[in-house]
Design goal:
Layout lengths: L1 E6 L6 E4 L4 H14 L2 E5 L5 E5 L3 E6 L12
Antiparallel strand pairs: 1-2, 1-5, 3-4
């Protein structure tokens, strides 16, 4: 699933893929904002993204559905 994080006063958003569920991402974001800590997310390739919760403008979580490839109907 794709996660997009908007950062305050930054034109570009942070985009990463994750194997976490929507509920898990929502819980991590909510906890980081409530505690005033860093939001830490890791993608399947091992890249870790750290975002200070004070700078988060928005978090967009994509659907958990797996994208289909090919021409089959």
């Amino acid at each position: 699933m794709e996660i997009r994080i908007g950062i305050q006063n930054v034109a570009r958003e942070v985009v990463l893929d994750s194997e976490l569920s929507n509920a898990e991402v929502n819980e991590l974001v909510s906890k980081a904002i409530a505690d005033g800590t860093v939001l830490a997310l890791k993608d399947p390739k091992g890249r870790e993204v750290l975002v200070p919760s004070a700078g988060i403008a928005y978090v967009e979580v994509g659907p958990e559905e797996v994208r289909r490839v090919g021409f089959a109907q």
